[in-house]
Each structure stands twice: as C-alpha cells, then as structure tokens.
Amino acid sequence: MVKMTTKDVSGLFHNRYYAADETEQVFGFRPKDITLPEYWKPEDYELHAEAGHLLICYPNRLPNLEPVTFEEMAKRALAGKSVSEGLLWQSQFSRDGNLVSDWILNDPLQRNGMPRSGWQFVSLDALSETREKDFIEQTNTLIRNMEQCLHHAIPPILWDAKSKWEGYERDFARSLIKRSEQKAASMYLSSLDVTRFLREPVQNAFFRYLLVFGMTGEKLFGNAYSWSSSLSSDGRLVYFGRADGDGAIVSGLTPDDSFSPLRAVASRSGF
User: Fold this and answer.
1) Sign of the C-alpha dihedral computed for residues 15, 16, 21 and 25 taken in this order
2) Which of 197, 210, 195 is nearest to 241 (CA)?
3) Residue 271 to residue 266: CA distance in whole angstroms
4) Which of 7, 159, 162, 228 has a CA-to-CA distance to 246 between 20 and 30 Å?
5) pLDDT tens-digit profile of 232-268?
6) pLDDT digits (tens, 9 = 90+) for 42-98
7) At CA 260, angle to CA 259 and CA 263, rounded to 5?
8) Burial class, 117, CB count within 10 angstroms (exposed 0-12 / middle 13-18 / buried 19+)
9) In the chain, which ranges are E strands?
10) pLDDT of residue 241
C-alpha cells in the first residue's frame, strides 16, 4: 500500500491542513508529532479533501503533560491578543480566557475534558442538513453524509457501527427518550461507536475554533452550534458555537431537542 506523508497531505489540503506548526503559532506550545494513521488509504485523504474538509492533528496534553482543557486553550489562544471581544461568550470566559462559568467550573467532565488526540477529518461548517433534527435523526444524517463522502466504500469498523445502530441501538435510544429517561438516553448515545466515530468531543470543536481564528481571523460556527459526542455531568449532550457578536458558547441539551441553529459537523477520526 502506498503510504501518505505529512508533506503529501499538507499539499493536498493546502490551507485546510493544521498540525504542530499551526498549534505552536496559535497556542504557544509545540505538541509531539503524531504519525498519520496507517489504516487511512490515499483515497481517504483524496475524498475528504474533495469534500472540502479540514485535516487537523489535535494534542490533548501540553509538553509538561498537563491537560489541554477549555481554560488552557482559551488562555493560550488569547494571550497577548488585542481581539478577544466577541470570540468567546463573556459569561463563560474572561477576556484573558479564564473560566468564569459556574456550569463548566462545577462540571468535572467539562472542566477537565480534553480534545481527542490525533488526526481528524472534519467539515469546515456544521451541515445544513442536520438542522431541526434531534440527536438520533442527526446521527442518521451523519451516517448518510459519510457514506456519500466515501462513495459508499465505508470501512468495516464503521459498517459494524452502522449495523449495530440500525439493528437495535437506535430503537433502544428512542425507547429511553419516550420514557422520558433523558439522562440515560444521553449517556447511552454518547457511549456508542457510531457516536464516537462520527461526532467529535466538544473540546475538539473548541480547539479548532480558536486554531482557525488564530490562523485566519475566520470564526467558525458563525450562525450555528455543533452538537458533539461529549456528555455533561447533568446528563446533557454538549454543543458549541454560534459565534455571533456575543461570542461562541458551550452548552448542552437532551437528545430529544432540536432547533434550527443546532446542527453537527461531519467528523471522522479513529477509524
């Protein structure tokens, strides 16, 4: 099998490629280089590049092994910057990036959470076709979107996850929601392979938002939120975005919720 190098993929993705150099420029530390996954074939990179996706390598720890948390990302991205207003919601983060939100500070899953480390293909924007859909219907849409992106040549591990989802997991999640067991439904959905494979932790979205803004001045999620795979301690599925004049926000909803700005990105990592 022909192996792709970082030089190959950086040329393929051009300004949609973010790795150690960009992380160092925006966050002020250089993460350890992570090799490209051997199970991704050259055509995987070509198809995701054709779809307009970003290719990003995420760290989850600093060189001193301290975790890359929301606060650590925000403080580093905003250090010495004159532009901070309208980037992150001031009720959650100060102009210096310090956490001021009681909800995040009192939730160990969010306060201590880190990005999923390694390489990720991800769409630049949240998908319009996921609007006004609950978490289950969004998941159905994300499966179809990935199948189309890969020209229906999906890898066996995703095929297995899809089979389990369509075979019994989706119906079981719906039964929990119908019984108003929303917390149990959130916990169940966040644990599934199909969720882990096709959605990202909210910390990845947060890192990417700050990274892209730091490199280009562009705000992702300008008019939408992206619903993640992350679970909050109070039993909600966490989303991030809506970078309007007040700044992007971290929040969460139960899986039966849906409204127009609540969407999801196309994400592929770990398979």
Assistant:
1) positive
2) 210
3) 14
4) 228
5) 999 999 999 999 878 999 999 999 999 999 999 999 9
6) 999 999 999 999 999 999 999 999 999 999 999 999 987 766 567 999 999 999 999
7) 90
8) middle
9) 17-18, 54-58, 118-122, 225-231, 237-241, 249-253, 262-263, 267-268
10) 96
Distance CA 16, CA 91 (A): 31
Give me the amino acid identity at 152.
H
pTM above 0.90, yes or no: yes
Alpha-carbon distance 213 to 145, whole Å? 26
Tokens of 125: 């924007």
Closest C-alpha among 188, 181, 187 to residue 164: 188
Cα–Cα distance measured from residue 251 to residue 259, given in angstroms and rounded to the nearest whole number? 14
Question: Which residue is listed with tokens 């990417």?
Answer: 208
Q: Identify any residues that bridge with 18 across adjacent strands, giving them in sequence order.
A: 56
Q: How does strand 262-263 pair with strand 225-231? A: parallel
Distances (CA, A) of 125 to 8, 46, 160, 217, 270: 24, 19, 27, 15, 20
